[in-house]
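User: I'll paste a sequence; please echo it back and then give the predicted structure.

Assistant: Echoing your sequence first, then the prediction.
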Amino acid sequence: MEILNRIFLILVLLAFHNPLTAQMQSQSQDLNVTVSGDIYEYATYYVSSFDISNGSTNVLIFRYVLSSDVYPIFVTVRFKASMISPGLGIDNETTIVEILTDPFQIGAGLVFDNRDLSADATTIQDMSGNQIELTGSLEDVLDPMTAEAIMQTILTSGKLSDGEYTFSVIIEAGLTEDELSIVFEDSKTFIIQTTASIVLESPGGPLEDVIDNLVYTNFPMFQWSAGSPVNGSNSFIRVAEFDPDIHSSLDDAIEDQRVLPFNQSEDWYLIENITSFQYPFSEAYPLEPGNIYCWQIRMTLPTTAGDDDLLSPIFAFKIGEAGGIETTGSITDPFLIMLQQALGDDQFNSLFGPGNSLEGFAPNGQMEINGTTVDQASVNYLLNQILSQNYQINSIQVEE
């Protein structure tokens, strides 16, 4: 029984990591059965969210609704979980557990989720309040030594081992126990990986290298890398001025008055789950030439124990003064402002100034670099490289 409890804990702990809404309708033997359900995603599953003694949990992982146009009907549920985990020495797909319930009768629709199940549970209720006894059998299961290794890994780290996990659910229904047919089936494979850190790329670097991290634009493009976001995760950025007369470190500065977000009652500025973000033209204090600024990224990830915060390191950069970064007062589009800074006032005015070929131009539609369609973030990155003097403009040609 101890091994069965542990296997059941793994089943509940693993079952259904990725979000899915499944609905299938089967019509046979004058029976029309509909099954729908939601599977809720978490970035991390913590063993502390579960009762090790019986595998129960108050955290909602999955939920299904089964209904029929005829009652009573008989139902069976088959669940199978398998895995590949090189870290555990499992290089080929191996069944964790396969469970098949005995046929049980329902007299109305049935709503059930993982919170109804544990090693101690024996009954559930259908929508009319009928008590239903659940019995079943283990069709296949990990050998005890492998199960012990998985449990030790979970108990040591509090999380699942990295690996590839596959889950399948099959529901059969019929008017009698001997006339069951499949009314719902689904299979899902997902990858569990240790949460990756946030790696800042540009602009900036350590405070001691700030002289080498000059930015020649009031609207820099912030770029970083991180793991793929999951449903329910959020990304934030904050930018603050570093004043060496006031702040002893970047941590002091980033916790002090921020230039982004503008509202000082907010610690962070919410952005999309992206890996690049241009300093906004509004809702932020302007960045001033000669000043040092620092920035940081934060991600919140949903877990079975609540949201986890993932913080990046803090990078510092300085707004360069060489050549000036004054902009024409009539220009309000951030892209045109960056273009003016990259080209210089004389070249920019010869193209966009009054009476010239691009007077009144406003960026819209499709952008291309060397014949390849790109988004504005890619163009902004290229302009930042020019402003930082990493790239040089050899010639300019305007096509009608």
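The CA atoms of residues 291 and 318 lie 6 Å apart. Residues 1-25, 52-56, 322-329 have pLDDT under 50 and may be disordered.
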